[in-house]
Each structure stands twice: as C-alpha cells, then as structure tokens.
Design goal:
single chain, alpha/beta, Rossmann fold, eight-stranded mixed sheet, 17 helices
Amino acid sequence: MKLRQLALAASLTAAAATGALTSTAAFAQAKEQFFPVLVYRTGAYAPNGVPFANGYVDYLKLVNARGGINGVKVSFEECETGYATDRGVECYERLKGKNGGATVFQPLSTGITFALTEKAPTDKIPLITAGYGRSESQDGMVFKWNFPLTGTYWVAADVLIQHIAKKEGGYDKLKGKKIALVYHDSPFGKEPIPLLQERAAMHGFQLSLLPVTHPGVEQKATWLQIRQNRPDYVLNWGWGIMNSTALKEAQATGYPRDKMYGVWWAGAEPDVKDVAEGAKGYNAIMMQHGAEPNAAVVKEVLEKLHAKGQGTGPKDEVGQVLYMRGLTAAMFAVEGVRVAQERFGKGKVMSGEQARWGYENLNLTQAKLDALGFKGVMRPISTSCADHMGASWARVHTWDGSKFVWTSDWYQADEQIIKPMVKNAADKYAADKKLQRRTPADCQS
C-alpha cells in the first residue's frame, strides 16, 4: 500500500513538475512577440529578395539588442515562398498560430497579398504591404487588416507622371507623347495600369502596355516593339532578373537609359550592377529612402550586429536600397506594436488584433524617426481608420554608373486623382465580397 502511495505521490509530483515546466515554457514563449518572415532566398527573384530579407531580420535582431519593445523580446521564423502565391499561403498557414500567434505578415508579393487579404479578417492578423499590394487597400474603411504603408503603386505611377511632366515643361507638353509600360505580367505589374490610363486620358499621352512573362528573361519581342514605336519614355514595372534584362535589352537596341524609369522595386543595386556603365542614366522612383550607408540605424546595425558576427548577410550589403527596404518594413512592424502597447499595456505581448490597432494609429513623427536612427531616410508617417497608407511622398534617384544619386526633389501623389479611384475600387471590392464599410464605432476598436 505504501509503495502504491509512494508511486502515486511521485507521479503527482512529476505531473506537477511537468505542468510547472510546461506553464513556465508557455509563459516564456508568450513573453516574446512573434514575427513570421516570408522570404524568397531561392529562385529567380532571390537576388532582390535576399537583401530585403537580411535587412528585415537584422532589424528584428537590433530590436532585441536594444532591449526589445518596452522590454518584450521579439522572435521570428523565416518561411521560403519562392515568390509563389501557393507557397506564400502555405507559409502563412504554417506560421500564423506559432509561438503564441503571428503579430503581422508582410507577404513581399502582390499575388500573395491578394490571397491573404481573404484570410486576414478571419484570422485577425494584419498585413503590412509597404509599397506593394492592393492600391485600394489604402481605404481602411473597407480593408481593415491591410496596411500599404508609405505608398501604393498608384502613388508610384502618379509621381512618375508628375516627374515626366516637369521634365517636359508642364502637363500640356505631355499631349501626343508616347509612354510605354513594360510590366511583369502578374498582379504586381498590372497594378499601375488604372492610374496611368487615368493620367493618359487627362493629359493626352499615348500609353502602350507591354507585358513580360515571368520571370522576365525573355524580352526581345518587347524591345523590338519599343524600337519600332520609339516611345518618349519607358516605365519599367519589373522585379528580379526582369530589371537587369530590360536594361541589357535597352542597351542592345539603343534605347536611352535616361528615358527609362523604374518603379521602386526596379531601382536597386542588383538591377544595375551587372550592367554597370551600360545602365548609366537609368532612373527609378523611390519609396522615400534610397541607399542609406550613412544613416544612424545602419551604423548601429554594423556596430551591434555585424561587428559581433551576428549580422544576417554580407556586411557590404548593409545600407543598400533593398536592405533598407527590409529594415524599414521591420521597423513599421515593431513600431505598430509599440503604439499598441500604449493602449493595451506596456511590456506586454500584443495579439495580432491589438497590433492592428497600433498600425491604424501609427504616428511616426520626424523626432521618432530620428530617435530610431532614420534621420534623413524617411518623412513622417501617420495612419488613421480611413487612411492605412499614412504617407504618399516619393523622389527619383538615378544610376551614375557606380551608385544611385538623388535627382529630384520630393513629390507628393495627387490625392484629387487617387482618392476617388481608391474609393471606387474599395466600394467595388466591398460589393463583391458583401462587406459593409466600417462605422465610427468600429474605428475605435
């Protein structure tokens, strides 16, 4: 009997100990803010996807080196999408419930964004799509869970037309001009078309649409059309190897690179380094930042991570265009959580739903950006229930044969053109999905 009692006591003690360990592990796990990281380090888009991923992960490491988010350490896990929509959805499903639940997803793909837009409201997990995704998702009254922070493709296209008009001496000088859009034949590449068509109707320029099949290595037929039609300007809406291929074809056909303008995903070092001097004069619109080797946050990453052998990628990549894009994207993710903590509890782990409120009430003043190490890199960003974009500023940089240099002042997208387009497209989406616009009461939740 005593043996049975001793055995029972031992088993209860073991169970209690196991329970204590389990609860301790769960508590420890719950004390970390989990950020899933969708990446593509392999495949046709890897040259561009890798530096973004390295910048994103380095910033999360830097946050921990700084002491976390008000003391809450962050954890992360990468999942390889290969830029494929189906794999992106698989990664989302695999990671959304891990480590206490995902804080936010950043798909880094417009196709994946389209797919996850259907899932996010049910799972109550926000999506940050900084500089990509659905342009109409700026409308937070319909797209409660989407945050195209700092700019959409309609912003990029609008600013490019503004810049071209300025070079020509005014909008009236655009009449009769030929502008060709060479675009990746995917949701990403098709996004600017409605805005460009609207501007073409307003100013009388001829818009030609030239799709390029994934991944973009075969463009000879496209550039044959360009050689025959001789457009005044070529807009390059490319990604990955499509960009360097376009520049090589332009060089081969004699099309002037200074008449070419890329979107912000077509204006980084991997796009031009293999063409080098042959890409001289090529321009791209930038989502605020460019290459920022002298930024305080870059120096901090080098000091606190790379100097200690804890950096994610090569040291010489730190501060380049796409590395900075990843760095800023991670900063948005973290700062939304910090805002959420102001409402729901400092030093606490935020749920995806609480983090969503933070992204909707983001107010990155210049003073805050400077304190985070982004002085001279970005302008202030302020979101609201109605505006999930927060800023619509951009500028142009140009490849001088060895580096990108700024060649324009700041432009702001024309909201008189974009806002009606956003509302119409958002209303159509709401009607198709049988959604109601949010109420003022919902904006407080």
